[in-house]
Amino acid sequence: MSAIEYRDLGVSIANTPILEGVTFTIASGDRVAYLGRSGAGKTTALKTINGLRVPTSGAILVDGADVAQQDLVALRRGIGYVMQQPALFPHRTVFENVATLPRLLEWPEEKTRAAAEEWLRKLDLAPEKFERRYPRMLSGGEQQRVAIARALIGAPRILLCDEPFSALDPLIRVDLQTLLLGAAHDTTLVFVTHDVREALRVARRIVVFDAGCVIADTPATSLHDHEHPLVRRFMASAT
To answer: Whole-model pTM?
Structure first.
């Protein structure tokens, strides 16, 4: 079953084309990286999945339904989203940040607390140490782990990640990639990056964007065999 389907999708902003003729599908449970240079269109393609960008032509479907015809509030509550900056609520504690969606959904407080503590532990944030802290009291890596816990607590069917580790040092990035893959192992993952090493680490499949178009769509294990010159440049940068 396809979780996400792009149908000849185009996006223009202020009459400037950002995406053109994008067509591919992502199967439920797959892990896909959108790889490309800055300005290639990969983040715009990601944002069409949860309706943050509106197509100007074609369509995008989530679970078989056109995003343009869906209740966006309900859609977004079923899709986790982790950005480059953690975007935590600065006036809320770690626990309160992680509990954001359960409280919007009016979960019982006991269920909310149990789920929040479980996710903090999964992401190596011991609740007894971290849950009462505020974001300003955390390192960048700790803040991003809180953001991942907040995104996954509602068991989303899809998790969108927009260069979530690009501001972190290489060792922390690898640690968080491992934690993310373990935490989201049953979730359809769409991960935007311009780092080919990261793409190869987190994804089973890689879609390469350039100038608003898809220039490669291949299993991660086959990326090194692709003949497009830009793909070859990406692979050369990983050696």
So the answer is: 0.94
